[in-house]
Amino acid sequence: MTATASRPPLLALLSGAFYLVLTLLPDSSTAVLSWPWVLIWQVGLFCPVFWLLTEVGRSRRWVWLGQGWDWLVGGGILGLGLAAMTAVYPHQARWYTIAAFCGLATLYALNHWLNATDLPGSDLTEKQARRDRLLTGQGYLGIAFVVVSLGLWATQTWLPELQRLQQIQQQFGVSLPFTFGTLQNRNWAPIGHQNYVAGYLTLILPLFAGLGLTQHHRRWLWGGAVGLGLLDLYTTTSRAGWVGLMVAAIAVLSPFLLGKAKMALSRQTLVGATLGGLGAIGLLLYSTGRIQALLRGTSVGALPGELLFRLINITAGGAMGWQRPLTGQGLGSVPLLYQSFRPMWAGREAELVFQLHSTPLQLWAELGVIGVALGLGIAALLMRTWWQHRDRLSCLTHSLFVALLAYMVQGLADYQLDLICISGLIIVLLAAIAAELQTLHSGNTSRIVSVARPIPAIGVGLLLAVILMVLPFHRAWMLSNQGFLALAQVESAKTPDDRNRMLNQFVQSLTQAHQIAPWEPYYPYQLGWVLGDMGLKQSDRSLIDSALQWFKTGNQIVPTQEFGQSNLGWLLLNTDPKAAQAAFQQAARLIPAKPGVFYGLGMSLLYQNRVDLGINAIAIDMVRDPTLITSPQWQTPQQKTLYEQLLRRTEAIYGELIDRAPNPIFMRYLRACRSGLRWWMGNMSAAREDANAVQDPLLTAILDLQDGKSVNWQALPEDASKYAIAAWLNPTERDRYLHQAWIQAQGAAPPREVMAELRATMDRSKTLTEWLRQNAVANSNRKLRLGFNVLSRHTDGINPKDFLNEVNNVPMTVFFSTIMQSMIYFPELDQGLQELRSSLLQSIT
What is the pTM of this model? Predict the structure, then answer.
């Protein structure tokens, strides 16, 4: 055997280098959505394609995968091609389809290198050595992943959070525990989200175990990797990851546990070890607190946010697939079309997504029957292959099947195939399995066929054509990045001329990006928002007019985005209320429970002197988002008459919903809100009637304080309102209790200026009601569209804010939010309001 026989080619090493970087790159799932990383990962995808073509051209051989996998790949290529040609958004579909084809080429490139027979000395020993080196190298990369993951999480999340909690304890005497119940505390590193990290660990942990069982001289290394990997998985608190590992382990061990296969260990030892391992996993998962939260929620008929999120995704994704059942909506269509399929009863939960958090559901929505058939085909072939060869496979190969089966289970609750580190790991495992099966059928040469000389050249030509096809994507991305870099310098510009020059560069760059890639709504949306924001701040009509045109352009590209419709409505409101009304109507059809949408619709109607309809629209928003009722914006003399009408209409809507409430839980919520509304209106007897009916201790305490009765604040439920009332009742300890109330509500230390204002306004108020209503501290803000860039699949830009300037009553929204609670998810409420919304929209039309 020559020294060069087993050395990977340069293109293979280059492909591996890209794979390593994109596996360990911090926050890689969002970094790859920015320039130049988008170019880097795509070059990394093209490298294995060139590698495959050069190897096939050199050897004039093609190595099939065998075991029926090639037929499935061929069907996948035809299906993906058909889906791309029929996609609703064809440019986005081609972008993702090209990436999928590159992944398939990578699988065949690895398969060719692992099974090539034309190299000197290439025999079964050499093939086995290559396969072992591939999996060992992947194992080392997995160890690096685990170390980087734990290191980044510990230094950037865990330790800083412990320090913050300790500072709160020392400063204010309030003890808050570190909890995985907060999403930000879970291990995101290095990929960028805890579910992604768990998905990778689900694949790599069985490989660690398999390497430990076969490489006796490194057993300490792989055993330590398993331990660290399990610790890493624990810090993600991923339920799906743990369940996937448990199901896969049981499935693969079942022939041994049931006595259907030979084993080195005694059956009693194996059963005991399996039960002990499953029990330990169950205890670890339970200790994170997420299982307790699930049990508590389901016991009272409520679901945690993650399960609600997936329930909404299932409904929307199912509808997407049913509309185009054969080929689906097309790859990349989910973030663009999702809101038009999202169910009305979802409320404010899962307003926008870029993936449906379930691999089968994602395949159904974007590829229809083709995607489902591919998914089922992969699962069936994988299980059939393992079952047919289970007695002949090596221990290491068994671990690969465990990894893939575990990931299939985990994939039911998330979609991660667009992540190179995860899809690349799956490809490595599949290629290694194919190589093992090749050694088991060493006498079968039908998997290796000759290739005509022109075919590799044709492949190179096709690849160059694909590269030319994606160049506009990259050129537009590069230009937009340059524009955002210029925009970042606008605020720091020293002179007005420099500021205008930077702004003009931003506009020119993103305009060119739009002209090159007119199918992307991101560029006109960013232009519309930035110019609109500056126009409002500077009272510059020309900037606002330009923003209007860009928002209209973005809405023409994708008419199913509430962001573009509602912000267009706010920009139009003062100059063209009828056009604003049309924009708000479209936004209301997409996300009817979004705070401010029906309020904006109502304002556009009031501006047209359609007073009754306008009052009805705003009152609907007040019922859905009662914090609007307490806003200090209504306290001006000009708003007094309108405000009184709004409160009366809001009370009437509560009455209508109460009359037809379908269950006691909904009835209690409505009467509690109406009690708070009536207290706010000054109708104390009616407020007490509702408070007595729902037996709410907080409402009762507030009404008792208004009537001059004594209140035992220590008996109130443990939340922020309890300590706010304690601050009212104990003037000498007011600062301490106000601080405690704020920390209880926000989980963070309060701003000094706000706390001083809260104390001063409370000191000069005669009653608690006067403090909350007449003397309340106001906070004016515009809601940030968190995740707008990530959900748009571009992260070069800035996260925009809504143009609606909300004026919040700080004590009511922070301390007493449960009195008139703004619910994120309450299907009965949205179903009850939908009849009123539909009737209003029909009346407007």
Answer: 0.93
